[in-house]
Amino acid sequence: HDQVALEAALQSIVLLKNKNIGSDDDDVVTSSPKSSPNVAQSVSSQVLPLSITTHGKITLVGPLANDELIPLGNYHGVPSNVITPLQGLRNLGVEVTHFRGCDVTTDDVTDDVTPNTSEEDNHGTISPEEEEEEEALLCQQIMDTESSDATILIMGLNQDIEREEIDRTSLLLPQVQVDAIEVSSRCSKSINPTAPVILVVMTGGPLDLSLYKLNDDIDAILYTSYPGQAGGTALSHVIYGMYNPSGRLVTSLYPNTYLDRVALGDMRMRPEEEEEESSSSSTAAALGKNENDNGNGDDRYPGRTYRFYNGDDDIVYPFGYGLSYSSWDYSIELMDPMEEGGGQQQQLNQEDGSFVFDMTVNVSNTGSVDGSNSILLFHRGPDAGRGGNPIKSLIGFEKVFVQAGGTQIVKFHVEEKWMSSREDGTHTFTIGPSINYTLQLNMLDGGIVSWH
Fold first, then answer.
1. Would you call 296 exposed, middle or buried from its count of C-beta atoms within 10 A (0-12, 13-18, 19+)?
2. Cα 133 to the chain's mean position, in Å?
3. Hey, is 141 helix, strand or coil?
4. What is the DSSP letter of 12?
5. For position 447, what pLDDT does the model report?
6. Is 419 a residue whose pLDDT tops 90?
7. Model confidence over 226-256: pLDDT tens digits?
8. Are 204 and 160 in contact (CB under 8 A)?
9. Alpha-carbon distance 111 to 176, whole Å?
10. pLDDT tens for each residue of 32-73
């Protein structure tokens, strides 16, 4: 059971940001024309993974760094042993100096009061003077660890902020943590600009991480959800390269402005179209819809989830996003109906009358590190985003382990029910959240005319 808990935690950790080092622009990992933006590229060295030889002394900051309860989440049994991030790092032989830095939240939370995690005021009962003193103390503590090789920040939420009967009013981290992250990262960089600063976010619900995605003082971001009893071991193994991360986001991370357009009680999935706007305005008002527009004079309901959301606000990280310590190449192929056996795999008139064909994806690990890759296959129909049709839909997924320099073939059995429609026109199949790896089928009268 301990091994299962560890494996589950390892596979669930998502690498969201991993800055390049040794390049002129030192930019965040991005895609090359032949590589997916879902995975890290090895064109230059990156901040993660750390090396115990080079990064043997760590400054660890955060209220979740040594908490044994928060990593278990809301629904859990009684584990035999809980390994916190602090314990996990020390178990690897890393010398760790730990500062709590702040509380998870300073709000006075009870069962009858929704916690205030809004951007405007989340300082709770701490006065501005006390806050300044705490920030100065934290900065001084970090400055005193000038021999530290890296700083790791363990931040996130807990059951005082999100649980049954407690709904969040913001997608932001509590302000006390926002301040602690800013102080810790700034002070760490001031004493050693080359020492990495790594932000670890532990949460159940989605958070707006745009502030840290764009912050030059934050070199890497790991998103762990609530990792369970072995979370500290899993996190330390990922940070120090003993495990190549392969987790993907299970939900899109929206900017906090998303809440201005989507009321908590409005459960509609599909966005409003122009002809629907007048008829649905009374319903939106009854649900408490915020009438602030999106900055472009358009206050129509934008829909929910990656399948339907069409808002103008940029999604911080999309559903299915996740980086790797390897680099990857893909190619998508449709099984040729003229090849032997192909006709049995692609036809429209089976016994049940359904449409079915086989599609293969060649997954190549072009990096120097062995690793697993989560292959996500999306479908986009000719009428995507119109008439209530989804923008795209996940129709298949598979995780494969590929050795460095190797290739694995993944086969997807695509059935009509996953395509949702047999409209004439172009059907696009995509690997991952990107649109760089696609196969397009041109269909007429329910049959495949061509593909490329």
1. exposed
2. 34
3. helix
4. H
5. 58
6. no
7. 999 999 999 999 999 999 999 999 999 999 9
8. no
9. 21
10. 333 343 443 333 489 999 999 999 999 999 999 999 998 888
Whole-Å CA distances, 419 to 80, 226, 304, 356, 381: 45, 33, 20, 10, 8
Task: Give pLDDT tens digits for 179-194.
Answer: 999 999 999 999 999 9
Distance CA(347)–CA(327), nearest Å, equals 36
Token pair for 193: 């600009």
Q: For residue 346, how far is the Cα from the chain centroid?
A: 35
CA of residue 367 relative to chain centroid, distance: 22
pTM, whole model, 2 decimals?
Answer: 0.84
| Position 221 pLDDT exceeds 70 | yes
* Nearest Cα to Cα of residue 430 among 7, 38, 18, 120: 38
Spatial CA neighbour of 307 closest among 207, 439, 204, 418: 418
The sign of the torsion formed by the CA atoms of 361, 250, 45, 241 equals negative
Cis amide linkage into residue 115, ω under 30° from 0? no
Burial class (CB in 10 A: 0-12, 13-18, 19+), 53: exposed
Angle (CA) 45-51-53 rounded to 5° is 130
